[in-house]
Amino acid sequence: MFFSTTDSSGRILAGNKVFTAVSGFAHRELIGQPHNLIRHPGMPRAAFAVLWTNLRNGKPFNGYVKNMAKDGSYYWVFASIKTLRDGTHLSVRFKPTSAEYERDIAPLYASALAAENEAISGGASERTACDAGIGILNAALSSSGYANYDEFSEAALTREMLSRDRNLSDRKLALFPERLASGASDEENRSYLWLISRYSHACKLFRALARVEQLSKSLQTEAGSVIALAEEFRVAALNTHIASSKLGRSGACISAIATFLTSYATDMTHDTDEMRRHLREIANSARTINASVAMARLELEMLLYFKAEIATDQTKGEDDLLPQLEEAFEASTSTAEEAVSALAAALPPVATSRDLLAQSAVSIQMAQVRGLTEAARVKEASGMITMFEEFRGKTRKARQEIETISDVLGDFAAILGPMGKCVSELATTVRH
Ligand SMILES: Cc1cc2nc3c(=O)[nH]c(=O)nc-3n(C[C@H](O)[C@H](O)[C@H](O)COP(=O)(O)O)c2cc1C
Questions:
Q1: How many angstroms separate the alpha carbon of residue 111 from the centre of ligand 1?
Q2: Closest CA relative to residue 388, chosen from 370, 400, 401, 402
Q3: What tens digit of pLDDT does each residue of 101-120 get?
Q4: Which of 2, 8, 239, 292 has its CA 20 to 30 A from that of 414?
Q5: Separation between Cα atoms, residue 122 and residue 190, nearest integer Å
Q6: Calpha distance 294→296 (Å, rounded)
Q7: How many CB atoms lie within 10 A of CB 177?
Q8: Which one, of 212, 178, 207, lies nearest residue 195 by Cα?
Q9: Pocket of ligand 1 contains residue 36 by CB under 6 Å
Q10: Is 164 exposed, middle or buried (0-12, 13-18, 19+ CB in 10 A)?
């Protein structure tokens, strides 16, 4: 695990020992140089374009990077990069090991690079070539079910960290020693041990968050079925309306029922639109919580690892990098705290939409029963019996699905309190 910092234009300001060792350059050969010193020619422009666009927009970047060491050999990293308060950037990296990485990333980058190079040989500008690469990346991500690069990279961050956890535990390896090297003071050791205890808290929280992701997904799926049903109601109500208008005077009552059905179905569509909006907020907040807790854990890990590294090497002057790692960790935990609040705020509106939908479903069911009676009574309307029966099946299904949404919302509300508490506790770690 290693890190480096750069100025706002990507010139290397500092890095830890492992960064220097892996790159094969001497410390003095790296400092002050642009980070593209270790750029591998196999990297597509598109990946760096996404990196810089994210940083410019105040967002972190998480992603795979292939680097070239001084001797020409390559090494892959998963990099988690963010901007600090003073405008410098911090990149924390580790070795990717997931099966998805092994299978997908090198071929994906190769095809993005090929598209870029083809554009360049066709006379296109660097910018157009880069867009061609971005097009390839986006197409691949969307065919794997990701809405955008951020969604992919956040999932990849979690996946890589879990994969590394498995590797370390299979090989019974620890990332950092249990105590600092013998030269460290008692005070340094105390603070180190405290951070280790907080780190295990961060790991537990990180693993528990899989449940948030799961709940967010099942909420989207369940609500998706209700949303689809609301649309079916709207179409069915419209058909009933058209059929009843052909009945003339004898169908006046059925026509009135059809009008009610249409109006309830319209209410349902409106409520599902509202629900959809809040569901998007929930999905985004759940992703942000996961990604920022994962980043916080990584930064805390880097902090611990670096503390152990400085203590071992007795390197002077490098402890001034500690506040930067601490700041990065604090920023991640406060992003997680904000996302927990945003998620908590989005749950009640979904519950409100669910209640309104349930009311509309009951009203539709009542109108349907009346419609069925009328269709059986009026001879000319017998053809509409099946239409009203269809409503019966759909309302039953809608009510069941609304019930499931309630269950998921209940589960969400139940974990949100303890989870928020854990995130807030984690946020106080380095201020201790
Ligand atoms: C914090 C930070 C870390 C970076 N780390 C790397 C890296 O490890 N390898 C790399 O090729 N580029 C890295 N970059 C991106 C480079 O600055 C640069 O955009 C990239 O190498 C492409 O350079 P070029 O288009 O000038 O060839 C990093 C940028 C930042 C801000």
A1: 20
A2: 370
A3: 999 999 999 999 999 999 99
A4: 292
A5: 62
A6: 5
A7: 15
A8: 178
A9: yes
A10: buried
Does the Cβ of 89 fall within 6 Å of ligand 1?
yes
Question: Comparing C-alpha atoms, which of 356, 386, 358 is closest to residue 371?
Answer: 386
Distance CA 148, CA 207 (A): 24
Type of residue at 269: T
Does residue 7 have its Cβ closer than 6 Å to ligand 1?
no
Exposed e or buried b per residue across 111-150, where buried means at least 16 C-beta atoms within 10 angstroms of its C-beta:
bbbebbeebbeeeeeeeebbbbbbebbbebbeeeebeebb
* 409 Cα–ligand 1 center, Å: 43
Q: What distance in angstroms lies between residue 39's CA and the mean position of ligand 1's atoms?
A: 7
Q: Which sign does the torsion angle of CA 255, 259, 260, 262 carry?
A: positive
How far the first Cα of the chain sits from its last, in Å, is 25
CB 281 within 8 A of CB 289: no
pLDDT in tens, 209-250: 999 989 999 999 988 888 898 899 889 888 998 988 888 888
